Amino acid sequence: MEKTKLVATVCENKNERNQIEEFIKSGIDVIRLNMSYSSQDVCRRLINIINETNEKLGTNTAIMLDLEGPCIRTDTFIGGKAYLNTDDKIRIYMNEIKGNMTGFSVNYKNLVNDLKYHTKIKLSKGNVVLQVTEKGLDYVVCAVLKGGEVSDNSKIYVPEIRPSRKFLTKQDYQDILFAHEMGVDFIVVSGISSAEDVLEINDLLIELKNEHIGLIAKIENKRAVEDIDNIINIADGIILDRGDLGIEMPIEIVPNIQKKIIHKCYEQGCLIVITAEFNSFLTKKAVPNRAEVSDLSTLVSEAIDAIMLTSETTIGAHPIDTVRIVSKIIRESEDSIDYGYFFRRSLNEKQKSITSTVSSSVVLGANELDCKAILVATNFGRTARRISQLKPPCPIIAAASNTSVVKSLQLHFGVLPVNAKGDTLDELTENVKKELSTTFKLNPGDKIIITGGYPFKKVKYTNFMQIDEI
Predict the structure, then answer these.
(1) Does the predicted model carry a pTM greater than 0.90?
(2) Quick one: which of 34, 227, 359, 434 has the most CB atoms within 10 Å?
(3) In which residue ranges of the chain is CATH 2.40.33.10 found?
(4) What is the pLDDT of residues 83-115, one digit of tens each?
(5) CA–CA gap between residue 130 and residue 158 (Å, rounded)
(6) Is the alpha carbon torsion for 450, 363, 330, 241 positive or negative?
(7) 323 SS3 class
(8) How many alpha carbons fall within 13 Å on the CB side of residue 343?
(9) SS3 state at 357
């Protein structure tokens, strides 16, 4: 199994059921649904397909719902798109119109008040650049500094301002209620500028008494980077969106930001997911170039928790082949992970508890005895998460009787969460060990470490470890 988890984005398409099944068979750990481009009706159908496929295959692929956030977008254009010519003047209207090469409208009516003279506006993934030259009551006039094509509902980037609108939109509120209703495992909070934005969503989940959904904060602008320490303290995980970050900030500083955020997530025990950058998969050839392979390999060697595929599996020509190719690259690249380095660094973290101390001893023992697996009997997943942070070279088998706990562990590095039956610790571990013998091809004399809380299901912390020889 690959220790680095893989997230694939799925959207509405005529082959969606077969695609989802092939994704799950290929080892996708989490399937992402993007509310920026999908309705609740479409997502409801896709979630039902994922659940049915999990039941059919006996798998536990988790579901991630990515909120649109307070995103500023263009409205529609005549014919679906328009070409803005360099050095032309165009108008951006606050009241909805059908756009063309001379002007278009936006979905945020207060943009005219937030913008200042000479503010730069970027569209089409940063390929089109405008600059404000005049302001009216309900429109702004812009010079086109860099021309190009703009299409319906294009995302608008204005790095120099913080929109004055409320963070939690009506649509996001409804989508969170939908996620709660549908039993979604992770929510991605997009468009955040500070920890306060994440806290607002967290408070809503508390009101809903939903303790299951993992809250993942997407870092995609300068303001979020500046408040990253506070965001990490609140969120269950971080998604670093390098594509949008490279539009909002100078692209040459993004690699350094990436390294710093990865390090901070390690220090705080926070999940870290990074978006892939495989433009080659968007072509019919669908073969990655050396730079793309090298980039992915470097990320894997950093022992991050997961890689996220976005447009590669939605508008890419060969989404299933893409997943298989990326999985192969991950598998090969994991040989270069310096597990000893990450373990030593994790020992310096200030996470003092019985569970943390026992977890460190488990990983130390697994390293010294060359154990083939660590078997964690868990009720809530905490021990498996802590052991994952310590980056052992062997798989972490997290055995839980609760499917929600199993799915909540799907994003964590090195964790293979499994449904396990057993009223006692001995029953549960024996059932899992039987499966391990075939899954990992254990041989006589191989060692595994078993850990958990005893008495089983009666204590809320880990207090024992046991070394078994097959």
Answers:
(1) yes
(2) 359
(3) 78-151
(4) 999 999 999 999 999 999 999 999 999 999 999
(5) 10
(6) positive
(7) helix
(8) 20
(9) helix
* Residue 389: closest CA among 400, 399, 405, 376: 376
The residues with which 375 forms a beta bridge, in sequence order, are: 397, 450
Give the separation between CA 45 and CA 68, rounded to whole angstroms: 19
Does domain 78-151 bear CATH number 2.40.33.10? Answer: yes
C-alpha–C-alpha distance, residues 279 and 352, integer Å: 43
> What is the C-alpha separation between 45 and 11, in angstroms, rounded?
11
d(C-alpha 60, C-alpha 185), whole Å: 11
CA distance 400 to 421: 8
- Which DSSP letter does residue 85 get? P
CATH number of the structural domain 5-70+168-334: 3.20.20.60
Range(s) within the chain of domains with CATH label 3.40.1380.20:
339-469
Candidate ranges 60-74, 155-169, 432-446; pick with highest mean pLDDT: 60-74
Distance CA 54, CA 48 (A): 10
Residue 232 identity: I
